[in-house]
Design brief:
With about 180 residues, this protein is α+β, with helices and mostly antiparallel strands. The chain has one domain: NADH Oxidase, CATH 3.40.109. It contains seven helices and five strands. Strand 3 (about 90-95) and strand 4 form a beta hairpin. The chain binds flavin mononucleotide.
């Protein structure tokens, strides 16, 4: 499957079969994350692979919205991946931000790694859904994330048990400008 096909086919999956994901397949998906670019090649991401159902149940409780289907899916999917980052390194020198984005470039780096992961997962027939609506402090305590790191996003990983319709996107004509912002 070429990259554009994965991009087109990927959708957030919130219902999963309990079919296991073998280690080779999991490693391929993680390798895609590992190869992502990052600020000055800092690679501050860390990925926690969670299979323990008690830990998954505790993570679901960190959801900021009760009944969030994306979080409920953690129960069904065989694997949950929590993407963490070391803070104050990406976009920083000597721990101080060097751009007007403060120290938040770690969010960008983790997103790049996650998107690699998600697209390769799609190419292997696996489903994912980015989960951001959770209490990262509480989730960090559950997963033993040390000071200086935070959990940026979580995704279930498993074989889809639904085929959702594609969500609408803005047309290119709405989001592309020429030479100056707003100029069509
Ligand atoms: C940063 C981010 C955070 C998200 N957080 C959640 C979430 O907490 N719960 C959820 O069910 N979906 C979450 N989503 C999934 C979006 O709702 C979904 O990507 C969007 O509606 C587009 O649908 P699609 O992924 O099927 O194309 C999140 C997506 C992103 C990119």
């Amino acid at each position: 499957m070429d990259v554009m096909e994965s991009v087109r086919k990927r959708k957030s999956i919130r219902a999963y079969k309990n079919t296991p994901v073998d280690d080779k397949t999991l490693n391929t998906v993680l390798e895609a994350a590992r190869l992502a670019p990052s600020w000055a090649n800092t690679q501050t991401w860390r990925f926690i692979i969670i299979k323990d159902s008690d830990i998954k149940a505790k993570l679901i409780e960190t959801s900021l919205r009760a009944g969030n289907r994306g979080f409920e899916a953690l129960r069904e999917a065989p694997i949950t991946i929590a993407a963490c980052a070391e803070m104050n390194r990406a976009g920083c020198r000597d721990g101080q931000p060097v751009t007007d984005k403060a120290g938040y470039w770690f969010m960008f780096d983790v997103a790049l790694a996650m998107q690699n992961l998600v697209l390769v997962a799609e190419s292997l027939g696996l489903g994912t859904v980015y989960l951001g609506g959770f209490d990262a402090q509480k989730a960090g305590e559950i997963l033993g994330v040390p000071a200086g790191y935070c959990i940026v996003a979580i995704t279930p990983l498993g074989y889809p048990d639904e085929q959702p319709e594609a969500k609408p996107r803005k047309e290119l004509s709405e989001i592309i400008f020429h030479d100056r912002f707003g100029s069509k």
